[in-house]
Amino acid sequence: MRWTFIIFTLALFFYSCENKSTPTIYPSKIGVDSAYQTLALKNKKIKEEKIPQKKILKTKVASLKKPSTSTSAVTTSDRIIPFSKDNTTQNLVISYAKANAEVTKIAKQTNTFTFDSDSAKKVWIKISAQDSTANIRINHIKGPGDTIKGGPFGKETIFNLPARGIYQFSISEKPTNKNPYAGKYKVELKLLWK
Predict the structure, then answer these.
(1) pTM over cut 0.90
(2) Residues near 138 by beta carbon (within 8 Å), at least 6 away in sequence
(3) CB–CB of 190/158 below 8 Å?
(4) Strands annotated E in 55-109
(5) Which of 47, 61, 147, 187 is disulfide-compatible with 101, CB 3.0–4.6 A?
(6) What single-letter DSSP state applies at residue 160?
(7) Could you read off the pLDDT of 88-140 as tens digits, one per residue?
(8) Which of 79, 126, 120, 84 has its CA nearest to residue 105?
C-alpha cells in the first residue's frame, strides 16, 4: 500500500511537470496564428518603446597644425656626440637574453657596443659607474641599415626594436657638463619580448 502511494505520487509529479502553462509561439509558414496575433503585436510595441533613440552629437573638429620643418628634434643643449678619434667598438655576447660588459673609458672617448636583436621586441640598457654622478650616458642607438635611430638617453632606457638585425649603441659624456668621465663603468643589457 505504501509503495503504491509513492509510485502514484511520483507519476503525478512527473506528469504535472510535462504540462506547460504558458503557450509558446512557433513560426508558421503562413504567418501568425489568429489566436496569438494580439499577443505578438503587444510584444512588438513593448520592444519598440524600450529602445532609446540615438542622439547624434555634432562636434567641431579642430584643425591640426603641422609642426614646422625648420625645428630640429635634438636641441643644442642636449645633442648627440659624434664619435671620437679613439672610439672603441665591442660586440656584446647575449646569453639567455642578457649581456654584461665592464669597460674602462678614457676622457672624451665614445664606446660603441653592438648586439643582435634576433626576435626581441625591446631592449633594456643600463650603465652604472662607481660614482653615481659620473658624466656618462647612452648617447644614441642605431638599428639595422641606419634606418632606426634614437637618443640621447640617460643612464637607463628601454628602446623598441622594430626590426631584426644588428643594433649598436654608444656611450659618451653629456656635452653641457664640462667634466669628462674617465674610469670604469658597467653595461647591462636585457632583451624583452613584452
Answers:
(1) no
(2) 125, 127, 151, 152, 153, 154, 155, 157, 169, 170, 171
(3) no
(4) 88-91, 98-105
(5) 187
(6) E
(7) 888 998 989 999 999 999 888 899 999 998 889 999 999 999 888 888 999 88
(8) 84
